[in-house]
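Leucine dehydrogenase (Amycolatopsis viridis), 350 aa
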Amino acid sequence: MPISLGDAVPDDAEFEQILHCSDDHSGLSSVIAIHDTTLGPSLGGIRMRRYPDQAAAAADAKRLAEAMTYKSALAGLDLGGGKSVINADPAAPDRNELLLAHARHIQSLGGRYIPAVDMGTTVADLRLVGTVVSTVSSSRRDPSDFTARGVVAAIRGAVQATEGRGLSGLRVGIQGLGHVGRQIADLLADEGAKLVVADIDDRRAREVRARTGAVVVPPSDILLADVDVLCPCAAGGVVDAELAKTLTARYVIGAANNVLADPALAATLRARDIVHVPDFVANAGGLIACAAEVRGDDSDLLHRVEAIGDTTENLLRTAGRRGQDTVSVAMQLAEDRIAGARAAGKTVPR
C-alpha cells in the first residue's frame, strides 16, 4: 500500500469500493469510500460539509478512509477503514432528508461500512441513520471524550519515552478548542501542564482560560508559540513545508486528521529532532470507543484508550532503532498487521 496520507489523494485502485451516491428527491450528493476490510468491516464517520465539487468530496473521503485503515490496525481493532461525506451545508434545512437518503446507500453495502459521527454530524444524526442502517456507531454517545483522552495518552507516552517525565510544567499549545480541543485542555491542566490556546471563536478561548489558566493567543500566533508541544486540533495540513523548518515546539502531537500537509515532512521533523506522533496513532481513542459501542462491550474501553500511550512509546522506540521517521514506521507496522491477517485468510468477502 503506497503512502498517500496528507494532501495527496490516494488512487482509486487502492480502494475496495468507492460509491458515488445521489438521490433526486432530497438532492443528495455524497461519497462512501471503503479502503480495506481485511481486518473487519470498515468503520468511519459521516462528514457533512460543503465541498466545491464532487471531486473534492471524493478526495476527502478517500484520504480519511485510508487513514482509518491504519488507525484501526495500529489500535489493534478488528476493523477496516472507511469514510463517507455528504456534500451539503450542515445547517441545511433538509439535512434529515439528506441523512436518510445517504443511509439508504450505506444500508445497500450490507454491513461493509459502519458509520459514525464526524465533522458536521451528531449523535442524534446517527440515531436517525440507525433507523435505516442495521449497524451504526456513535448513536449512543459522542466519542470525542475518548479522542481527547487518547491524544493526552500519546503526549504522555511521548514525553515519558523521550524525557522520562510526566506532564507537570510541560508547555502545550492547543490550536482549536472544539469538543476535542477543549477536553484535551482540561485533561492536560489536571496533570499540571501549562497551556497556550487559540481558537477562531474567542468565546471558546476565554472559557478555557477561565477553567485552566491558559494563555490565549491569536490563531495566527499559535503554531509558532513558545511551547514544548504543538497540539493541532482544528483543520488538517497545518504543518506545511515552511512550518516544518521553522517550528519551535519539540513535539507535534494533535487530534486533527492529516496534521502534516505531506507525510514526507515527517522526515523533516525527525531531522530537526522534533518528536512527531502521527495523528492516526494519537487520535484513535474515538475510533476505539466507536468499536466498543458496536461490540456492546465497554469493559476494557478506558484501558484500550490509555494504551495509545504504550503504542506511542513503542512507535518512538522502533523509529529510533530503525533510524526512520514515525509516519513511515507507523504505516509499516499497520501494513504488517494487515498483511499478516491477509496471509492467514482473515479477509472479509467483497
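The chain has two domains: 12-129, 144-286+310-331. Residues 144-286+310-331 form a domain with the Rossmann fold fold (CATH 3.40.50.720). ok done for today
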